Structure formats: structure tokens, C-alpha cells
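Marked as duplicate of an earlier ticket. Keeping the data here for the record.
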Amino acid sequence: MSDRQPAIHPAPDEGTSWWFATDLHTFKAVSATTNGAYTLTEVTARPDFVPPPHIHHREDEAFYVLEGQFEFWYNERTFTAGVGSFVYLAKGRVHKHGATGGAARALVLHTPAGLERFIAEAGKPATDRSVRPTPPPMAELERIVAIAQKYGIEVPPPPESRQK
């Protein structure tokens, strides 16, 4: 059959890379290559920046840890996942995640696809993957939060500000 989808086969160092804050996101499969089914990203993170608690209203998110450790906060519970761990985070739930204790690397799956568009708009092209940016200032974080809303990602205010 001539209308079959070709296989996706990026080499280990291939994929489009973006810096999102201080994390390196290298896309291995995106909307265009999966018919919108999923996005697969190799994420390299360091503990000097952890995204705030947030909610994906469109995508489920899953991590398979390749190196180091990630700390997760989900359903008001904190836990650590190391090499070989798989973590599934359902859409619609407040959560956060970040590297702990040093650099960490994971394959991150988002279903359905589309999160790559947010990372591309909110991040910066990684023309040199070896030069990691510094943590973003507050104005940059506010810009990212505004962009996130366009992609169905909510960053709720901290609990202490909701009680006022």
C-alpha cells in the first residue's frame, strides 16, 4: 500500500532541540510524524530550575527515566523516580517535576501530540546543546506562563496566594 506512514528512526544525536528554561528538549517524534498521536521528547534537566506546579488540560504525560533522578509532585504526594522508572501523569491534575541531585535525562511522552508547539514558542532553539542557559528571570517566566495558556497548560497561583 503506497499511503503507509514511513517509519520514524532518528539517530541518537538527531532531533530538533530547544532550550526550555534550563532544560534541553530534543524532539524524537512530533505531531507531523505521528499523525497527531503523540510527542516523544528526550529531556535533559538539572536541579537549578524546576517548573512550577501546572496542569496539562490536553495531554497525558509519561516519563521513562534514563539517567539520574526526577522528583515528582502529583496528587499532593512527592516521590522520586530513578533510572528505569516509569511515571504516568494524567491530564487535568496539578503536578510538577524536576531533576534532583544532579543532571537527569528522561524520555517524555505526551498524548496526544502538540506539546512540541508550546516548547518551540516558549523556548529557544538549541543551536549549541552544550551551552546551557541560566535560570530565567521573572519576566521570562511570566512570558512562558502566558504562552502556556494558549496550549491548554494552566499554572495555578501558589496555595498561599489563593487563600487571601
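See parent ticket for discussion. The CA atoms of residues 24 and 130 lie 10 Å apart.
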